[in-house]
Amino acid sequence: MAYDIALIPGDGIGQEVVAAARPVLDAAAADAGFSLDYERFDWGSERYLDEGSMMPDDGIDRLRGRDAILLGAVGHPDIPDHVTLRGLMLPIRKRFNQQVCERPAVLYDGVESPLRGYGGGDIDLVVFRENTEGEYADVGGREHRGFDHEVAIQSAVFTRQGTEDVVRAAFEAATERGGKLTNVTKSNAQAYGMVLWDDVVAEVGEEYPDVEVERLLVDAASMDFVRRPDEFDVVVASNLFGDILTDLGAIVTGSMGLAPSANVNVEGDYPSMFEPVHGSAPDIVGQGVANPLATVLSGAMLFDHLGEGVAGERLESAVADQLADADAPRTPDLGVDAGTEAVVDDLRGRL
Ligand code: GGG
């Protein structure tokens, strides 16, 4: 069996981590008896600087029908972030109805959390982030530019269907994990979209009587991600709140360099996209020290999504095994100054 994978390394260290992770993914796939046929798309900021757009006009059509997309990162120091994000990553998420963004945060054995008293295995949560609308709906406008009475309006859009998709995925995960669901909103201050969100959580929750539902406002949730991260299991949040909480989740579990994500099309009619949570990290680009593990773990999520769970598990346990080994190479974000290549070479040996 061969899967058709669109590879979009993107910008900065996105290029480095995708190139490094690819042979690891291939080795795990070969072991499990399948292969990955890649088509590489050199879309991103360099293309924007040369041609004025992050991807071609028919970019979405060229991705349609693939089994999955593996993306590195977007962001360039010479281009405003809203241009790069809206030029590549957000259109893919939106056009392909990747309504559910799943972002696990796991504190692996051998990894140090910046939080005192937390060790390997103590934190194991997953955030379900609404991924195509909410605060990133791209609805608004800016008028009277440069005048004192300049005004900008940025609207958040919450549809019942979009909310239900992510909430249902979160309840399913909570059921599977045998844990609880934390619903994060700001419905005391945002009385329309967020109250609709709470209503949907209550309605869908009736179908999952065994799941304990906790409600938190995002300010309290942020505090508790630092104060008691071990008590979270499945968290569901809007696009913006999920984006913020998952950076927090990544750092309390040791590093942004370990945080994977899946942007899932729940209907299965378009490809889903897998990417490390981290961005293009221009400060370390070209130094060969980017941590490839978030991309490898995103590859494990991609394998699970393709129904190749054995290969996914093998990848994740190779990563866990490496992190638990105090003598294994690590990149500087984990406190050691080994390079990207040393980490993937070691990892291949553990598969
Ligand atoms: N690999 C993910 C990436 O490039 N992230 C940069 C970023 O700005 N992400 C915002 C988002 O995930 O919505």
Automatic annotation (TrEMBL):
Question: What keywords are annotated for this sequence in UniProt?
Answer: Manganese, Metal-binding, NAD, Oxidoreductase
Q: Which GO terms describe its molecular function?
A: magnesium ion binding; NAD binding; oxidoreductase activity, acting on the CH-OH group of donors, NAD or NADP as acceptor
Q: Where in this chain does the record put each Isopropylmalate dehydrogenase-like domain?
A: 4-347
Its needed co-factors are: Mn(2+); Mg(2+)
Claim: Protease is one of the keywords in the record? no
Stored Pfam families: Iso_dh
- This protein is called 3-isopropylmalate dehydrogenase
Source organism of the structure: Halococcus salifodinae DSM 8989
